Structures are given as C-alpha cells and as structure tokens.
Amino acid sequence: AALPATLASAGPGADSAPLVRVRVEGKTRTLFGPTEPRAQAATPLQALEKASLAGEIYYHVQETSFGPYVDQIGRYRASGTSGWVFKVNGAMPPVGADKVELKPGDRVLWYWATFSESGGPPTLRLARVKPDCYQVTAEDDQGKTTPVAATLRVDGQALSVKAGATTCVPRPHGLVRAVAPGAVRSNALP
Q1: Dihedrals φ, ψ of 66, to 5°?
Q2: Which residues pair with residue 178 across a beta bridge?
Q3: What is d(CA 90, CA 111) in angstroms, rounded to the nearest whole number?
Q4: Residue 48 phi/psi, 5° resolution?
Q5: What phi, psi does 57 have (nearest 5°)?
Q6: Considering the entire predicted model, what is its pTM?
Q7: Which of 58, 65, 23, 72 shows the shortest CA–CA distance to 44?
C-alpha cells in the first residue's frame, strides 16, 4: 500500500506545526519513509511520533535528567556505544529531540548508529541532478557533505557510483537508493 504524501496531523496545536520531511533508518533496513514523506511536527521527537503512527513502528522514550531519550525504535534497544540518534537537515543538533524547533521544509532523520572515537557513521544523501541521473554525498555529524563512492540500488540491481560522479539510471525504473559500507542508507528517489 502506498503511503500518503503528507501524514495526518494529530493532537493539539499540530495544525500550526511546520511541514517537515521524516525518515527512520533502522539497523538493518528502512523502518519508515524512504522517500521522506511530509508531516506536521514542531520537534524531531514529534516527527518520530508521526512516523510511528503512520508506519506502525514501536519506539520507547526513557526520561533522564537531561530530558527524554529515545532508547529503542523497532526491535533494537540502545546499548553501549550503539543507539538511536537524529539529524536535522543532515546535522546532529547539540540538544535533545524535544528541544529542536523545526522549520518548514526541514528534513528529520532518525537512525541507528554505532559511535567510535571519530563520531557516528556518515549518512548518505541521494540527489537528482537531472532526470534519472543521481549523485551521492555523505554527511558527517556536523552536516558537512563530501562526495562518496557508493552503490545505487534500483529494481534489484546494483550500480557502482564513483565519488563525485553522476550516474544515470535507464527508464523505466523504481525507487533509487544509495548504500555504502559503514554508512547509513540514503533517502530514496523515483
């Protein structure tokens, strides 16, 4: 079944919340919104709630002295250096998911990450540069983008992409995604 282009608003004040894009990337697969559907949400935590309702995915919030902490989405519970984090427009905010004030058009990504001394994994971003042609970049925790070698997945096939190169996909085709070792899967584009 196709997902709606815009997730229904719910709750008091939801109609006044900005329209943002939301996606949830799990440890092994996309849990919600590969094409980043729009939702009305004032904070990343509200965006996760909208994704949970629309995609029927479980999440759990633990109250801590620093505020609410999302310690589980889907089957995987945070443990050690691995857990659930979020980015807004490709960057990891220095405050909690209930404190970031979203603006219209913001992109919210929740994802599973294992952290090392150098930070979390890069998140891939797929961009269409002309009809049926794509480029892939990697976003670090601060939102800095760099060209990256990746693999485009489309209709069960894999197409290699060199860092900074534009790759065109023959028509007709379904959704296109990018994957790379050690990185979070990209958004999907038609």
Answers
A1: -90, -5
A2: 152
A3: 12
A4: -65, -40
A5: -110, 140
A6: 0.90
A7: 23
